[in-house]
Amino acid sequence: MKTRRTFIKKIGLGTALVGLSPLQAFSKDAKKPIKLTILHTNDMHSHIEAFSSGRNKGLGGMFQLSSLVKKIRQEEENILLLDAGDIFQGTPYFNLFGGELEFRLMSDIGYDAVTIGNHDFDNGIDGLASQMHHANFPFISSNYDFSNTILEDKVIPHKVFNKGGIKVGVLGIGIELKGLVDPKLYGNTQYLDPVTVANKKAHYLKKKLNCDLVICLSHLGFKYKNSKVSDMKLAAQTKNIDLIIGGHTHSFLNEPVIVKNSVKKDVLISQVGFGAIKLGKIDFYFDENMSNYCNFEHAFDSNVLDVIA
Questions:
Q1: CA–CA separation, 124 vs 303, rounded Å?
Q2: For residue 168, which of 60, 182, 202, 216 sits 20 to 30 Å off, Cα-Cα?
Q3: How does strand 243-245 pair with strand 266-270?
Q4: How many CB atoms lie within 10 A of CB 90?
Q5: 271-302 pLDDT per residue, tens
Q6: How many CA atoms lie within 13 A of 246 on its CB side?
Q7: Residue 124 has pLDDT above 80, yes or no
Q8: Three-state SS for 271?
Q9: For residues 242 and 211, what is the distance between their CA atoms, to the nearest angstrom?
């Protein structure tokens, strides 16, 4: 049975939905929709505390992020908290502790999964591997081939989550490291074409594992003026991906950007800057027969929250 999807877009925080509300998007006889809340960050760059100066003074940091996520957890039932990479590098905390503090805090906050960014290799592949035991969440990378490296058994190519009966498949796509990172830092890591890998992995998650929602954690960057692969290009050249959570370019998107994929279906792209200044929040609503994951409609309601005490 073919999947039916309806995206209903909310413009900004606190404004009315254009058209129908999520609950009105379904028939009167349908069961109450199941709400899935996706929370996401990217490029936190070891910002443990709020910015102490500049235009972002008082904003950001993992400590304040923790308080905001805790508040949302009290309000929502089905939550996935995800990160799109570059957890490391940016403050003396990384220089002092090598990533241990970041992973411990993210574990305490309750992250469900992360992907790997280029700066996460800044202490070398051995340095990254040595800190992973401090994390109680999986590291997902689909287009970095870590065979014959210390990360071979520490990174997975995808993961499926079940939230309230909704199957969510997550894959991870990283940027090309050559020319960006010293080869000594990433060792024998092999970079695989992101579009090819994303297509194969998304097809596997959606068609073979029957996931209701497929999310790509991407550290490619939002968009470029040249031909470099970006989230915009990835969305347009693939299918079976519903949401791309991006990173690398530190792009502040106040709402998801919608792109038509290779079969003219909508893909959402979201990214929330850097330094945990913002927390992305996207609510999906599913109306489905719980015995059949492939027959549903969903709407989304999105906003970006300032991380501030």
A1: 36
A2: 60
A3: parallel
A4: 19
A5: 999 999 999 999 998 875 533 333 345 677 88
A6: 29
A7: yes
A8: coil
A9: 11
The CA distance from 159 to 137, in Å, is 11
Over 90: is that where the pLDDT of 208 sits?
yes
CA 102-176-106 angle, to 5 degrees, is: 15
Distance CA 141, CA 182 (A): 19
In this prediction, residue 203 carries a pLDDT of 98
CA separation for the pair 220, 235 (Å, rounded) = 11
The amino acid occupying position 70 is K
- CA 188 and chain centroid, separation: 26
Picking from 37, 52, 38, 137, the residue whose alpha carbon sits closest to that of residue 87 is 137
Architecture of domain 48-306: 4-Layer Sandwich (3.60)
Strands (E), 25-142: 34-41, 79-83, 113-114
d(CA 137, CA 72): 19
Nearest to 84 by CA among 109, 58, 119, 59: 119
Q: Give just the sign of the alpha carbon dihedral 54, 60, 62, 66.
A: positive
Give the pLDDT confidence score for residue 30 in this predicted structure: 56
Q: Residue 281's closest CA among 6, 30, 14, 3?
A: 14
